[in-house]
Amino acid sequence: MTDFAALLIPDDGGPATDLTLATAGGFRSWLGSAGTRTRSLLAAQGFTAKPDTLAILPGDDPADWSAIAGIEADHGPFALAAAAAALPGGRYRLRTTGDMGAVAFLGWLLAQHRFERYRKAGGDTAPRVLLTGDIGRITAAVRLAEATALVRDLVDTPASDLGPAALADAVIAEGRRCNARVDVITGEALLGANFPAVHAVGRAASQAPRIIDLHWGNADHPRLTLVGKGVTFDSGGLNIKPGGGMALMKKDMGGAAHALALARLVMQADLPVRLRLIVPAVENAIAGNAMRPGDILATRAGKTIEVTNTDAEGRLILADALTLAGEDSPDLIIDFATLTGAARVALGPQLPALFTNDERLAADFAAAAAAAGDPIWRLPLWPGYRDMLKSSVADMVNAPDGGFAGAVTAALFLEAFVGEGQRWAHFDTFAWNPAPRPGRPKGGEALGLRAAWALVQKRFLEKEFPA
User: Fold this and answer.
1) Whole-angstrom Cα distance, residue 208 to residue 190?
2) For residue 428, which of 29, 132, 184, 376 sits 20 to 30 Å off, Cα-Cα?
3) pTM for the full model?
4) CB under 8 Å to 359, separation ≥6 — which residues?
């Protein structure tokens, strides 16, 4: 993984190239006091401080130069990303054209992250090092960049190298790093341990299904439980996906990647919580013993499910995982899942859908998302659609007919496995950038992670536990 700590360091007063940040309004004021040569050079480059643009300002000799970068007035976490990508390797010191408040470092760091497991490094890989006097923010920025890169790298790894076993190994590695306990239940043992839905979804794959269960922290602290959908590849099962729909299904474990990254942030910060991370890890494959449409599955909760679509498998494994999550009555459950195409149709690839059964929690998430510059959008747990989940032969179906309100009915399905009175939030996230943006290349992406991290810090550090 990229050494982010080497890219953001305390200002030691040594040589560095000035990087001036300018909003459109601040630039006009700054330009009025600049020299004629500077104004001419900027005019020649067509620089007007438009966000994500950069211009070079020569100095008095060939080795003496500086740069100016345009950013939004309401700059977000990726304000420095375009500059970090465009500048040559070296050391840089920030200057501003006015009082624009604290500028996030995240974009500077993530613009330099590359997923290069399967190819040699190409292009200019010389590091761009940013010097800052804001020492107190370095550790937080580096940890957040590392957590985001963890999500990206896991999602970008193909299923040939990231099956259920490797996903369990990734959780175990994070557990070792932070002195957490990780228990893994595998294969036929899932039936004896009462995880029948996880077993049913994953039993047809060459790698056995698993429940991965991490525990960390003081048992006397408030309980935070994270759950992540870990479908390492989704063929659709016997309701097989078309080729186009299967192409990105290595990312169907993106929920698990988000939950693991959030767990890492919690443990690194030593938050005063009793943390639990639960990942049901399966591959939804096709074989003679694959679950079939029309099968009726048992669940850990005792509810029975008629399988109307084997491609709606993520909610089945989450049913067992959410039941387990609620058994020790945590103060908060947050689950992440790449659950429905319907959420993408409604909100597109950049906005994760948030569902929650708690109004105060919804408001807190909205505030946290705004503060973190990590947009989310709440969708309703509309009770009128619960009838869509009714079955004539079981307690419920896993996928209603008709396709209406697919993200909502999927969330309502999950809610049926959340204990009464249990505070719960569900992220239906895409975990993918279909097109590159500054600091966010095409590929795996953390969407909702920063919002959840901001919420968790505020809630548990300030001990906000409303009734």
Assistant:
1) 10
2) 184
3) 0.96
4) none
Q: Which of 315, 423, 450, 459 is catalytic?
A: 315
Contact predicate 338/399, CB 8 Å: no
Residue 365, C-beta contacts closer than 8 angstroms, at least 6 positions apart: 354, 356, 376, 378, 425, 451, 452, 455
* 229 exposure class (CB count in 10 Å sphere: 0-12, 13-18, 19+): buried
Instruction: Note whether 170 and 260 are within 8 A (CB).
Output: yes
Residue 285, φ and ψ in degrees, nearest 5: -115, 180
CB 207 within 8 A of CB 165: yes
Tens of pLDDT, residues 425-434: 999 999 999 9
For the record, the structure tokens of 202 come out as 């994953």
The Cα 33–Cα 292 span in angstroms is: 73
Task: Give, rounded to a whole angstrom, the gap between the first and last alpha carbons of the chain.
Answer: 42
pLDDT in tens, 257-311: 999 999 999 999 999 999 999 999 999 999 999 999 999 999 999 999 999 999 9
Q: Which domains does the chain have, with CATH numbers?
A: 4-112 (3.40.220.10), 142-461 (3.40.630.10)
How far, in Å, CA of 28 to CA of 97, rounded?
Answer: 9
- Catalytic status, residue 315: yes
Question: Quick one: tokens of 421?
Answer: 């009175």
Q: 91, 114, 223, 241: which one is catalytic?
A: 241
Q: Determine the residue type at 318.
A: L
Beta bridge partners of 128: 90
The 3-state DSSP class for residue 383 equals: helix
